[in-house]
């Protein structure tokens, strides 16, 4: 039950990232907003770790935490936001995000020597098709012919960065406390975002109420709560099963955009949502274990 509630809460929180980005980016340069967000999260989780008396990792483990944060928070967020800000349609960016679970699944088999049953691969494929159905109208409206090469490369590198950061969570750093792990990793992501902000040289910040509300939710909801849940799920369910949850994010974000912004949600999208949900449930289901299968704690 705890694993189910954590999974549902993670998907709900993570799906708001698309909504927050749409609301905040018009009021501040993406790199600057991300730099401020990740720096504040580092302070919040650092204070929580201090209260919980969680020791700061040292040596190789500290370097791994920083690398995971640089990939998962810094590279993924800065490159994906930059790509969208430079012409990559949000629908296509979200569809590319559906490749992340596939990357994680393949990498887990190659590098972590996991054995994934056929139902996991089948569920992954069904869910990706469902995500495509949900996003098809947005992609058709925006078109794909006008996408420049740099935003496309940045988008792919962003997804690869998130996959790499997710896999690192499963290694030697899995035994460290959630709060101190989040603090150090967000610190690593903040360094990337700060470097990107300095490189871009744009400091747009209109100080509007929408900007501060979006930033507050990004810090406390998306980063502090959402990323802590992500780390917990990777450690308790494995990178592949956790990554499959990300396939539910674009469909749920489409529903939220329909409720908040009045965007259209047609029969194809509703059918795609059902496919994505069914595929994720199939891929994460536990059949009868076979020899060589990885059995992970719930």
TrEMBL record:
InterPro entries: AA-Vitamin_Transporters (IPR050638), EamA_dom (IPR000620), EmrE-like (IPR037185). Residues 4-134, 153-282 form the EamA domain. It is a multi-pass membrane protein. Its main location: membrane. It is found in: Membrane. The chain crosses the membrane at residues 32-50, 62-84, 90-113, 120-139, 145-165, 177-199, 211-232, 244-261, 267-283. This is Permease. Belongs to the EamA transporter family. GO terms for cellular component: membrane.
